[in-house]
């Protein structure tokens, strides 16, 4: 498990990270979301030891990672980073060897990854001759080629078509099943929702929400209910302990403020006619995100 | 894998990339051709015989007989034509290089189209004058053998006190060759280090690299990779130059036995000097964030090579200034080998100069390392020296 504990970092006068704490357990996929400039990349750089925090600690499996341990991390930087004129296989082998993998193993792994990513034929091509999407796949291969124990991926899915997203997600899932912890950032919230086991939301350099997505939504859902029933619903605001948030013919969203008011509302609705549904409103991830990021 | 070998992986990649670059291979070949040409061409140009054809009338042709004991490399073929007009026509048509025609009162004139090659003019004048002198002397009753003898009196003999002393111009040229080579190769490879650093910044490869390679190792790898190629080029060029001289100008190497040892010292000075300067080039690269910025961040480093190079021109001759510059770390790689060439110094002086460079290199590396490390992940804009220095503090 990678643990960041109260990480604070300033750039000049600007407070980039304010006591950020988060954990990436082994075998879990942690989605990392936040608006541009929220501090995601800085957090990731600090987690990898590329940048030093002003205060706070980073630990991996209980101890502060040294270089040998950090070499077991895999990283995909947001702005990418490979040699445009380098041949695919050669660069992957180079990177793997820098991480301590010997040449033969590195070559075998690189070839296997390229094969899986559909780039087996192009192993000897220069990176710059590939389409952007394919370059992105190579970048993922670069993060995986030394068989890391932890993956930190900054926007791994941006610029990929849906099929490529699925292929990459499957590749990552596989690693997760093998016990690798993955921290990945993304602006595609539906994708994060679909893929992640846990979620960390960063806003203005602070963690504003963290946990399993389902749990987070339920916690936020709390007091809101949606009622669908026949007939006019303008009466619902008159039920004691219930405040009408919005209504449309046949549907109303309310905020329940008093204890037991939800049951009173339901009883009243049933008395007035058939009720088609009555359920707590669970916010979508984007609703959750825009709410906590505000 | 042990950490110590990472720098070698970086150096290895650096060399592969450079060797695969056609521009690099081409420029190496070009330099090689230039060095060989410099060794061989002077001999080729000055050597050989010049052949001329000269038109003459039946009156002037006897004046052009070859003189006994006539030295030099000029061969003249005399073509006798009908009259002066025919001779002038031949000159105009370019069939002959010049014509010798009768002039007023028994004299002769040399006729050329635009000019008469000076070597040819000298020989023609000598022949005509001698022939006329012989005819005047025999006319005055001197027998022809005596007349010839008078005309071929040998010039006073020369006696040289130090015939083997080296032409200062030769040492000047060789010294200049060392200085130019040093400047060229340091700038070429310095730039390629800086470019390689800024490319890694620009493409963000460096973000991946620093997660696994300590910045020191990255810096060392770049310097070693490019340094080995630079050393290879220097050794190749110096060896080609020496071999060229040995074949084309063997007498020069006899006169100047210090050439090989000067060349050896030059290579050693190059290695240490390159180590000293290359780290600064790396720092200049790190301070730029795009290739276009490199020009401005690399200028100060370039000055550190160019200014000492121009300073060496003020120190062509042995003297205090030359001695001082041969110890100043930035200029000593360009000056000390020349002093070895002049035979002024033994082995201890170059050794001391090397130590001075090594000490400077240690200082430069420390400074460059800090600039490099601080700037490496700053990708927004190119950094000023001050902000690059301060950032870590």
Topology (SSEs and partners):
The complex is a heterodimer of chains A (294) and B (393).
Chain A: E1 2-11, E2 14-24, E3 29-34, H1 40-48, E4 55-60, H2 67-70, E5 73-76, H3 88-98, H4 103-116, H5 132-144, E6 150-154, H6 162-177, E7 181-185, H7 189-195, E8 198-203, E9 206-211, H8 213-221, E10 224-229, E11 242-248, E12 251-256, H9 261-272, E13 275-280, H10 285-293
Parallel strand pairs in A: 3-7, 3-8, 5-6, 6-7
Antiparallel strand pairs in A: 1-2, 1-4, 8-9, 10-12, 10-13, 11-12
Chain B: H1 6-20, H2 22-46, E1 50-56, E2 74-80, H3 84-93, E3 98-102, E4 108-111, H4 118-139, H5 144-151, H6 168-202, H7 205-210, H8 215-248, H9 250-255, H10 259-287, H11 291-313, H12 320-325, H13 332-342, H14 348-375, H15 385-390
Parallel strand pairs in B: 1-2, 1-3
Antiparallel strand pairs in B: 3-4
Task: Describe the protein in words.
The complex is a heterodimer of chains A (about 290) and B (about 400). Helix content of chain A is about 35%, strand content about 30%. By secondary structure, chain A is α/β, with parallel strands linked by helices. In chain A, the strands form 3 sheets. A 6-stranded mixed sheet of chain A has the order 5-6-7-3-8-9, sandwiched between helices. Chain A has a 4-stranded antiparallel sheet with strand order 11-12-10-13, with helices on one face. In chain A, strands 2-1-4 form a 3-stranded antiparallel sheet, with helices on one face. In chain A, helix 3 (about 90-100) packs across helix 4. The longest helix of chain A has 16 residues, at about 160-175. In chain A, about 40% of the residues are buried. The model of chain A has no long low-confidence stretch (mean pLDDT about 90). With about 400 residues, chain B is mainly α. In chain B, about 65% of the residues lie in helices and about 5% in strands. Chain B is built from 15 helices and 4 strands. Chain B has helices spanning about 5-20, 20-45, 85-95, 120-140, 145-150, 170-200, 205-210, 215-250, 250-255, 260-285, 290-315, 320-325, 330-340, 350-375, 385-390, and strands spanning about 50-55, 75-80, 100, 110. In chain B, strands 2-1-3-4 form a 4-stranded mixed sheet, sandwiched between helices. In chain B, helix 6 runs antiparallel to helix 8 (about 215-250) and helix 6 runs antiparallel to helix 13 (about 330-340). The longest helix of chain B has about 35 residues, at about 170-200. Chain B is elongated. The mean pLDDT of chain B is about 85. Classes of the chains: A alpha/beta (about 290), B mainly alpha (about 400). Chains A and B meet through helix 3 of A and helix 1 and helix 7 of B.
């Amino acid at each position: 498990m990678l643990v960041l504990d109260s990480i604070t970092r300033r750039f000049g006068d600007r407070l980039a990270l304010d006591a950020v704490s988060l954990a990436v357990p082994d075998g879990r996929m942690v989605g990392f979301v936040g608006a541009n400039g929220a501090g995601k990349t800085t957090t990731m750089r600090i987690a990898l030891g590329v940048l030093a925090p002003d205060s706070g600690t980073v630990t991996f499996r209980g101890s502060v990672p040294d270089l040998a341990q950090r070499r077991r991390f895999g990283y995909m930087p947001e702005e990418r980073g490979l040699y445009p004129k380098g041949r695919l296989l050669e660069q992957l082998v180079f990177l793997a060897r820098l991480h301590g993998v010997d040449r033969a193993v590195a070559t075998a792994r690189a070839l296997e990854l390229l094969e899986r990513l559909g780039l087996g034929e192009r192993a000897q091509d220069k990176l710059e001759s590939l389409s952007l999407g394919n370059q992105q796949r190579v970048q993922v291969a670069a993060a995986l080629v030394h068989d890391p124990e932890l993956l930190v991926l900054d926007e791994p899915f941006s610029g990929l078509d849906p099929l490529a997203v699925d292929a990459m997600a499957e590749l990552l899932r596989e690693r997760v099943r093998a016990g690798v912890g993955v921290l990945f950032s993304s602006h595609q919230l539906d994708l994060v929702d679909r893929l992640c086991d846990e979620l960390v939301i960063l806003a203005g350099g602070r963690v504003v929400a963290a946990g399993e997505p389902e749990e987070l939504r339920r916690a936020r859902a709390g007091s809101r209910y949606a009622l669908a029933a026949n007939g006019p619903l303008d009466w619902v605001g008159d039920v004691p302990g219930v405040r009408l948030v919005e209504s449309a013919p046949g549907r109303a969203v309310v905020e329940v403020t008093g204890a037991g008011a939800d049951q009173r509302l339901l009883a009243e609705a049933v008395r007035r006619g058939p009720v088609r549904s009555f359920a707590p409103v669970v916010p979508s991830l984007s609703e959750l995100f825009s709410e906590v990021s505000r | 894998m042990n950490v110590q070998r990472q720098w070698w992986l970086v150096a290895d990649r650096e060399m592969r990339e450079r060797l695969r670059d056609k521009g690099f291979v081409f420029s190496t070949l070009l330099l090689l051709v230039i060095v060989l040409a410099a060794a061989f061409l002077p001999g080729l140009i000055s050597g050989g015989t010049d052949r001329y054809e000269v038109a003459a009338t039946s009156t002037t042709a006897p004046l052009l007989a070859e003189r006994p004991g006539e030295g030099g490399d000029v061969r003249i073929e005399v073509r006798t034509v009908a009259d002066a007009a025919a001779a002038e026509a031949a000159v105009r048509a370019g069939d002959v290089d010049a014509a010798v025609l009768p002039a007023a009162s028994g004299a002769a004139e040399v006729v050329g189209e635009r000019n008469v090659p000076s070597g040819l003019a000298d020989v023609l004048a000598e022949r005509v004058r001698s022939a006329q002198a012989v005819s005047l002397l025999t006319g005055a009753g001197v027998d022809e053998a005596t007349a010839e003898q008078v005309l071929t009196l040998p010039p006073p003999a020369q006696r040289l006190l130090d015939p083997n002393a080296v032409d200062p111009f030769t040492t000047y040229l060789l010294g200049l060759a060392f200085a130019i080579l040093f400047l060229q190769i340091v700038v070429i490879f310095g730039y390629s280090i800086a470019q390689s650093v800024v490319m890694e910044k620009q493409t963000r490869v460096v973000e991946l690299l620093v997660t696994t390679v300590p910045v020191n190792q990255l810096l060392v790898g770049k310097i070693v990779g490019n340094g080995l190629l630079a050393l290879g080029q220097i050794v190749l060029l110096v060896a080609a130059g020496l071999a060229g001289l040995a074949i084309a100008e063997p007498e020069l190497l006899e006169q100047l036995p210090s050439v090989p040892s000067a060349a050896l010292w030059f290579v050693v000075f190059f290695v240490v000097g390159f180590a000293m300067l290359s780290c600064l080039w790396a720092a200049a690269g790190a301070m730029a964030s795009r290739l276009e910025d490199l020009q401005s961040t690399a200028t100060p480093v370039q000055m550190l090579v160019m200014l000492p190079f121009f300073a060496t021109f003020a120190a062509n001759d042995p003297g205090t200034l030359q001695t001082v510059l041969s110890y100043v770390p930035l200029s000593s790689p360009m000056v000390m080998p020349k002093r070895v060439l002049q035979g002024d110094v033994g082995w201890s002086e170059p050794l001391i100069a090397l130590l001075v460079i090594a000490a400077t290199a240690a200082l430069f590396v420390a400074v460059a390392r800090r600039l490099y490390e601080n700037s490496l992940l700053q990708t927004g804009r190119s950094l000023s020296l001050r902000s690059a220095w301060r950032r870590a503090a």
